[in-house]
Predict the 3D structure of the following.
Amino acid sequence: MKLSINNVYVASIFSFVLLSGCNDSDSKNTDMDMMEPAPEPVIYNYEITVSNLTYAQPMSPIAVILHDEGNFWTIGEPSSLALETLAESGDNASFIAESIVLSGESGTGMLLPGMSETIEISITDNQPGYLSLATMLVNTNDAFTGINAIELNNLLAGESISVTTRSYDAGTEKNSELMSTIPGPASNGAGEGFNEMRDDLDKVGMHAGVVSVDDGLSSSVLTQAHKFDNPTLRITINRLN
Amino acid sequence: MKIKTLFSGIAIAASAFSSQAQQLDITVTNLTQGIYYTPILIGAHSADTSLFKTGEMASEQLQMMAEGGDISGLSAVLSSGGADMVENPAAGLLAPTMTTSTTLDTTDGNMYLSLVAMMLPTNDGFVGLDSWMIPTEPGTYSMTINAYDAGTEANDEIINGGGAPGVAGIPVAPGADAGTGAMGVTMNEENNYIHVHRGSLGDDDLAGGKSDLDNTVHRWLNPVARITVVVN
C-alpha cells in the first residue's frame, strides 16, 4: 500500500516538473499547485556559540550571516562601508543588510569578556554555502574579529565545528587610542564611533594589538587591562537540522 | 570494475612516490599593517638542507638576511644543497597587507618548502617557514606563519642604517614613519638561539625616547604572514 502511494506521489511530482518546465500559462501552473500538496519546507538550522576570550574587550553585538557567495573582508583591500561602521562603532545593522546576506542575526547585546552567547540562525529551502561572523573589540579604534566565509557544505545535521578567531584592523581609523575615538566603556562613552573619514592605511590587515598608557602611549585612554593577543573568540557552529 | 580498480591502484602508487617533481603556485601575504618584508627567499629542498631551525643558533647566512635583508648567503646554501628556489618574487619590498605570487618547479627529492624574509623596521626579526613537507596530493594548502628573532643582534630599535651582520641598529623604516634620536631599548641580546620574536616595543616620542619605532604603527601580533601553496 505504502509503496503504491509513494509511486503515485513521485509520478505526479515528475509530471509537475515537466509541465512547469514547459513554460505553460500561469493558470495551468496554479491548477497544478492546487492539485498537489506543497512540498514540506526544508529548514537548515544552526546554533552558533561564541565565547569572548579577552581580558577586558567587550565585543559589540555579534553579527552572524549565512551566504552562498563572496566574503566580508580581504587582507590588503579597503573595508566596505558596512564593515567600517561595524569596526569603528559596533553597529552591525548595515553589515547584516549586505547584498550577499541570505540570512542574518545579531546577538542580543554586548558580549562581555569571559562570557558566552548562543545565537540561532536558520534558512529555509537553501542549504547555505558559508557562514560569516563579525564583531568589534569595542575598547579599540577599529579592531574586529570573526569568521570570513567558513564552508558549511560538509557539515551534516548533528555535527559541529569549533574554531578560534584572530583580530583584524579595518584600516579605516588610526589607532590613536585617544579618549575621543574609543567608543567602548574605556572612554565612559565619551568616544566617537563611526566617522566616514578614512585616516589610516585604508586596507584590512591583522591587528597589532593595543599599546595602552601603561605600555608607552601616554595619550591613550586604554590601560594594560585592554591589551589582547590572538585568538580573541572561540566559536562553535552546531548544525541542528 | 576491473579497469577502475586498476586505475585507482596506479593513482595510489603515483601519489605514494613522494619525491617526484612538482609544480607549485605560491602566494605570500604580509598580514601586518606596519611592517615591510625585504626580498623573500623561497626554496624547495631535501631533508639535508634548511634555512633556519628554531632553538638553534643562526647561521652566518641567516644573520645576513635577518639583520640586513641580504638573501645571497642563504640562496648559496640552497644552491649547494641542490634546491629549487625563487629569489625576490615581490621584486623588492613586500609592503604591509600586500600579496605576491610566484611559481616553483621542484625536482625529485626536494620535498620540503622553506621561506624567509627580514621584517623592517626590526633589528633582526624575520618571517619564516622551516621545512614544510610539500603534499603529494594536488590541492590548495594554506598556512599562517610567525615572526622570529635571529638572536644575533640586540633589539635596540635605533634606526641608524646598520644592516651589516654584527652592526647594531635597524637599517631603515621603509614607511618613513619612524622617529630619530632614540637612546635604545636594550644593548643586550641574551638569547642567542632563534626564538619567537617578542615583538617590538616602540614609543610615542618620535624625536627621542627609548625607541625610534612608533608604538602605534610598528608593533604586530602573530601570525604575520599567510602562505598559500597550490600543488598542481
